[in-house]
Amino acid sequence: MKKQLRCENMVLAVLFIFTSAFSFAQERIITAGSALTETVCALGDCDKIIASDRTSLYPAHIQKLPSIGYRGGIQAEGIISLKPTLIIAEKDYVEDAVLQQLRASGIKLVIVDRQYTIDDTKRFIAQIAAALGRDAEGKKLIATIDRQIADATAQLKKAKTNPKVLCIYNRGAATVSVAGKNTFGNILAYVGATSAVGDVEGYKPLNAEALLASNPEYVVTLSSGLESIGGIDGLLKVPGMAQTTAGKQRQIVSIDGLKLTNFGPRVGETIQELVTLLHPELRAK
User: Fold this and answer.
1) What region holds the Fe/B12 periplasmic-binding domain (predicted)?
2) Fewer CB under 10 Å: which end of the chain, C or N?
């Protein structure tokens, strides 16, 4: 009898493992939030994404998939018509009424509450990995980030400067904002730099008086934003910019927009890059 029970338990265990694996293999995923899309791909399930939101531009082939739209424009009907089995979305990115409709339809939802810190990046990677049955991959990805940050920290011990940096976000010359706390500006804490604007919270319009008062030594911005304003020469036309130390010395640092702003799987790589760019004494001669 005991032998028979052991055999039955083994059969049930095998069936459970097979069923679970089959379930994950059949997953049809929709993501809402570029950092989450990138994380699903970094964990190895990019091929299961059937649609994403308008901000999800990396990896590049995601742009060829159907788009569910952007924030307030996202509707439940369009999502349900794509027959997803799993939706991974940033908290407050999709309206509550839409989420309620999706839940009522029986679609599994994973809602990720994001913050701009390394600890939170590792937390949401683990959360998504668990939802995908990719725990081992999640631990490996987190270990890679830890290693990259450790390497950057070791480099910073050799640094002789602590530059004052202004992070900005712009789309052309019409909209130029300072990126303060709880934005990608938080990354300065990990790269041996000080924010030129101190306690500014979120994104605030950039004005000439505040810019001159902050007098940054470096400006960090998105590559796409710098291109949209006409490169460094275009940025220096922003009132007050040419009079700052950063402007006079043309110390404008631009990085791929999603990599810089996402605090996602590539955050360790971004930190390594910024450490070198903001500390010229660390660059190979």
Assistant:
1) 28-282
2) C
